[in-house]
Amino acid sequence: MNNKILLLIILILIGVISFLGFKNVNQISEDQGLPMSVFSISEQNQMFDITAEYPQFKSSDVSFNKKIENLVNERLVLFKEHSNDNWEAMKAVPGSNFGEYPQSPFYFEAKWRSVQLNKNYISFAIEIYTYEGGAHGDTQIYTFNYDIKNQKEISFNDFIGGAQENLNKLSEMAISNLENQILLTERDKGDQELRKMIKEGASPIFENYQNFTFDKNKFTIYFQKYQVAPGVFGIMKVDVYANQLYQIDIDYLK
User: 167-226: per-residue pLDDT in tens?
Assistant: First the structure.
């Protein structure tokens, strides 16, 4: 191979690593009989402080693992783009006296938490926190559910059987639970804006219920920050237990 071409390939690879951070398999384990690997991405410099981990499973199909990997990498690319844009905008403000790099690096953290990992099902959540400048950071949650026996991802529609009637009942449960969590004082209970936010964010629309995890005991619904309550409440979650699900004809839990 021509030396110039080889040098160009090496430089491109270095550039990719520099942009996305260093990725490594830092753990190979077997959780409840489920073979898996945990990949990590790390980058610490004057501009960025990045720490991320995500799992990959030998028992699932390639597309499911790729979806997990793509989520983290795509969010990381957006984080860097937004952080760089924000930093350039801050430096461009008349009278600003910033140096080449921010006082504290922009921050990205992706961490995952398993809910069910066994020979039948995979169910887990990835929580991503970013600080891209401004007054505060942001947190979002993403969930992944997989049926190993049938080699297919489990969607909310699959779980609930696609029945609007079941979704209506589940929405009623979620709204009641959220009101108990959010409307904490007598003053809160009279806050119509809060009630409206809860009812809209947890209304019986399939898109409102895409983030969920499950095990044999309960089904947990996650609502993104600002979806059902002001940002101070963060990500909200509602646990619906197996006996409640059976009452509305949902029996996916094994």
Answer: 999 999 999 999 999 987 666 777 889 999 999 999 999 999 999 999 989 999 999 999
d(CA 228, CA 171): 12
Strands of 218-223's sheet in order across? 212-214, 218-223, 236-241
* In the block, residue with structure tokens 């699932």: 60
End-to-end CA distance of the chain: 56
pLDDT in tens, 62-92: 999 999 999 999 999 999 999 999 999 999 9
From its phi and psi, is residue 117 left (phi > 0), alpha (psi between -120 and 50) or beta? beta
Using DSSP, state whether 11 is helix, strand or coil: helix
Residue 19 has pLDDT above 80, yes or no: no
Q: Rounded to whole angstroms, how far apart are CA atoms 89 and 167?
A: 44
H-state helical runs in the chain: 3-20, 62-92, 156-160, 164-182, 186-189, 192-201, 242-247
- Bridge partners, 122 (sequence order): 117, 146
C-beta separation of 105 from 44 below 8 A? yes
- Which helix (H) or strand (E) segment holds residue 248: the answer is none
Token pair of 116 as six digits: 């069910």
**Domains with residue ranges and CATH for the chain:** 3-154 (3.30.565.40), 158-247 (3.90.640)
B/e letters for 134-151, b = 16+ CB within 10 Å, e = fewer, are eeeeeeebbbbbbbbeee
Mention every residue, 6+ apart, whose C-beta is less than 8 A from residue 131.
106, 107, 108, 137, 138
